[in-house]
């Protein structure tokens, strides 16, 4: 998608949260680079970055993941933001040979303001975020009002360590 078309759809900035993860190659560098790439998206700036976390794969095999969450302020619509996230994944060499395969980069749009979206390509809030410590712990770090104590307790059994 061309930047000029994206900017034509500019609107007031919306605070959104994006989960980042990788478990192939230099995962920590991939996550940090993706944070920087998010800041370069049209009409977008990173407002908060969590620490990096190490977590075991959930419903998947492969090496441990490096995870983080960023809060961004973006003038992109939620569908356009999703397109940009998927383009960043492809640039990082993301392949999808089978569901939950190990990956060089995974970017999930968790929240888009207070929007509730249910379309074939996008569900906001992210439908599985409350089931994943690797999302909730870094999200609680940067946006504590978005994560309840009960949600954190529900994923307490999942292994996650702040790096």
Topology:
Blueprint: H1 3-8, E1 14-22, H2 27-39, E2 44-49, E3 53-55, E4 65-74, H3 78-91, E5 106-112, E6 117-118, E7 123-124, H4 133-142, H5 149-154, E8 160-162
Antiparallel strand pairs: 1-4, 1-5, 2-4, 3-4, 3-8, 6-7
Q: Globular, elongated, flat, extended or rod-shaped: what is the shape?
A: globular
Main pleated-sheet profile: 6 strands, antiparallel
Q: Which class of secondary structure composition applies to the elements?
A: alpha+beta
Rg from alpha-carbon coordinates: 15 Å
Can you count the beta strands?
Answer: 8
Keywords for this structure?
single chain; disordered N terminus; 5 helices; alpha+beta; two-stranded antiparallel sheet; 163 residues; Alpha-Beta Plaits
């Amino acid at each position: 998608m061309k930047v000029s078309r994206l900017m034509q759809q500019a609107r007031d900035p919306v605070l959104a949260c994006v989960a980042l993860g990788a478990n192939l190659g230099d995962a920590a560098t991939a996550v940090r680079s993706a944070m920087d790439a998010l800041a370069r998206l049209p009409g977008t700036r990173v407002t908060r970055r969590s620490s990096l976390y190490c977590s075991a794969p959930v419903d998947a095999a492969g090496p441990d993941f490096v995870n983080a969450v960023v809060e961004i302020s973006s003038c992109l619509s939620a569908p356009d933001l999703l397109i940009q996230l998927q383009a960043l994944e492809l640039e990082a060499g993301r392949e999808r040979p089978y569901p939950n395969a190990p990956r060089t980069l995974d970017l999930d749009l968790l929240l888009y303001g207070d929007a509730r979206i249910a379309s074939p390509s996008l569900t906001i809030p992210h439908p599985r975020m409350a089931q994943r410590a690797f999302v909730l712990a870094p999200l609680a770090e940067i946006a504590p009002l978005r994560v309840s104590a009960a949600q954190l307790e529900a994923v307490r059994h999942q292994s996650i360590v702040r790096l």
